[in-house]
Amino acid sequence: CDMGVLPNLFPGYQEVTDPAVREKFAAAWGVDPALMDDQVGTRITEVPHKALTGEIKAYYIMGEDPLQTEADLGLVRKGIEALDFVVVQDIFMTKTAEIADVLLPATSWGEHGGVFTCADRGFQRFEQAIPPAGNVKRDWEIISLLASEMGYPMHYENNQQIWDEMRELCPLFYGVTWEKMGDMGHVQWPCPTLDHPGTPWLYKDNRFDTPSGKGQLFATAWRAPAERPDDEWPLVLCTVREVGHYS
Q: pTM for the whole thing?
């Protein structure tokens, strides 16, 4: 999410519907802002439905195994089977990779360096531990090669070059330099300036970012599950997300 994988956000939690944000990223990437989509995209749970209606014809899946991990696997399977073309970029031969039309093998975390982003808003730099085995490439290399073949040249040299481009475009992350991560080991955003040490907590003085200063909770109406146990399949397996039985 920090890096913009949500369909409504650029990196740094900047809205795709904001014209000024689109112009900023377009200028950095050397493209016409008029060519950038100003609409919110499709969420992963909506993909099977749109595949079945024909709205989505192809699916590029990176580091995800929807045929194994998504809710309502029967629906997901039908949706993927309805697609014309499936590309999977992953480090394992997952259930989804097995049915891909094109499989792009990527390096694992031990075979490349990079940055982890954590649920506590922390960035941690890590280094390559072993050389890659087999005919694999780093994720950013694969994306760069594909973009270049499709008419948009990408010529990144290393992880730091990509990181520096990202933080220059993201006010929340600007102060998290490559060197600072190496020195401190762990930097939490917001980190807006080069001399900023990072933000261990978001809400000062026990106040949330709401008019009342309190956290706002909400409830949703109960809805019966789409799949129920029966004589043939009598068990329900829950892993971690027990309330919603999501995965």
A: 0.83
